[in-house]
Design brief:
11 helices, alpha+beta, 2 domains, three-stranded antiparallel sheet
Length: 332
């Protein structure tokens, strides 16, 4: 009888739950999916982990010829150049309310604290944001990340099986969200992002990616053609972004000098410490990549890889975040 009551309870929970996080939590309670370890073994040395994370993606070289092309040209000379606009207090409040994470960054100021004082400090916060956008400088105090190492697999045996997640100051997230809104609005208006990129975009998801892919394959089948599919996944995608190349590509797509200078300031000379339990590593500087766990990271990655479709010929390309699917149909 108890078993039947539990079964009915969890069945109702799974049926009624609309939030993905709550849905997966319910699955774990039912033991339908396993619980991964949230922290790596304590045998890993904290400074070694931080050094590995800080150097991820640093061995990748860029093509100087490609860099020079993007830096010296623009995709559309008649395109309106993007420049940051000053934000209002209402926009700052809206961005503030979008942040749900309770994680506390290196400045030990939580989003809950900022929201509590916002009726008295919203003017000062708005001034700080606008000053940053106008000067092209991202505050150094907001560039210090606390990195949490999360296992990619159950019971990791080496540092390479860990993934870095950056916990950033709440003020950094507010500013990032305000910047995202302007960059995304411009990118959508100018059709900069690939139409078949389903990751990190409003009204897009894994569902739209699968629907597009299956639609192409079914269409090929109806025409009596065979299909071959190659699926690619970038290794350390966010960590491998070259800042110089990103800035050149943003210039190519119409982002003005003041904007790319701000992006360079945001990404440059970022400090990180890795924290595991009660242990904290020595701080190190990152010289490449975008912080995993940041608000800006996904849109910067999308802009960095927006030219991928131009490299693909004789097949259809579908994209979801850092994954690519190449579909080729042909007669038997």
């Amino acid at each position: 009888m108890i078993w039947q009551a539990k079964k009915a309870f969890f069945a109702d929970q799974l049926t009624e739950t609309k939030n993905p996080k709550a849905f997966w939590s319910c699955l774990r309670q039912c033991n339908i999916v396993g619980n991964k370890e949230t922290e790596p073994p304590s045998t890993f040395k904290i400074n070694d982990i931080n050094k590995y994370f800080a150097e991820m993606g640093s061995g990748n070289e860029i093509c100087r010829e490609t860099l020079n092309f993007f830096a010296a040209n623009k995709q559309n000379e008649t395109r309106e150049e993007f420049r940051f606009k000053a934000v209002t207090e209402d926009e700052v409040k809206s961005a503030m309310n979008e942040i749900k994470s309770a994680a506390i960054g290196s400045d030990e100021i939580s989003i809950k604290m900022i929201k509590a004082v916002s009726p008295y400090a919203i003017g000062a916060i708005t001034h700080l944001v606008n000053r940053s956008l106008a000067s092209g400088v991202f505050p150094h105090a907001w560039k210090i990340a606390i990195v949490r190492p999360l296992p990619k697999v159950t019971s990791p045996s080496n540092i390479e099986q860990l993934r870095p997640i950056s916990i950033l100051p709440a003020m950094s997230k507010i500013l990032e969200k305000l910047v995202i809104r302007q960059i995304v609005a411009y990118s959508n208006k100018q059709n900069i992002l690939p139409k078949l990129q389903s990751g990190f975009r409003k009204n897009h998801s894994t569902c739209t990616a699968l629907i597009n892919l299956f639609s192409d394959m079914i269409d090929a089948r109806d025409k009596g053609r065979y299909s071959s599919l190659v699926m690619l996944d970038y290794s350390k995608a966010f960590d491998s972004i070259n800042h110089e190349m990103l800035r050149a590509k943003m210039h190519y797509n119409g982002f003005g000098y003041d904007t790319t200078r701000w992006i360079e300031s945001y990404l440059g000379d970022r400090l990180q410490v890795t924290r595991l339990g009660n242990d904290t590593s020595e701080p190190l500087v990152r010289h490449q990549g975008v912080p995993q766990g940041s608000c800006l990271g996904p849109i910067l990655f999308s802009l960095y890889t927006a030219d991928i479709p131009s490299c693909v010929q004789n097949c259809t390309l579908h994209l979801y975040a850092d994954g690519s699917q190449l579909h080729l149909s042909y007669k038997p």
